[in-house]
């Protein structure tokens, strides 16, 4: 994590310097590298479409190059129906396949991992934001794990 984000504040603080603020932009739809900045473990209360259960809320920092940095929030239910989404997230971040042929998943190490995804623009109540359309799996997973450029 960048040094500017390591200082912890107290609830009794009365002022804060705003000169080093992070500016997020809504990037045009497209393919961008991302970094998992934060994982929040939530509990989904259930709905007509999905049962209750654990849910991961991921904060992704999108690297738009000269266009700037964007932010997207991705929520993934931890259930069988969402297994493909979990698998593509971890594949995109360079996690391999185990001896059983299943994707390795380790939520405790996902923060700080980088991957590639296609992002789209989501509009809600007149406000636009970036949203993950699809996590992209490296073409050559061993190259990614060995530190090579698997996205080329």
Helices and strands, in order, run as EEEHEEH
Helix content: under 10%
Strand content: 35-45%
CATH architecture name: Beta Barrel
Q: Largest sheet, described in full?
A: 5 strands, antiparallel
The whole-number mean of residue pLDDT values reads: 85
CATH class: Mainly Beta
The value of Rg in angstroms is 17 Å
The domain tally reads 1
- The chain-level structural class is mainly beta
| Morphology | globular
Q: Stretches where pLDDT falls below 50 for ≥5 residues? A: 142-149
Instruction: Write down how many β-strands occur, each being a DSSP E stretch of 2 or more residues.
Output: 5
Main sheet: strand order: 3-2-1-4-5
Q: Count up the helices.
A: 2
Termini Cα gap: 26 Å
CATH topology: OB fold (Dihydrolipoamide Acetyltransferase, E2P)
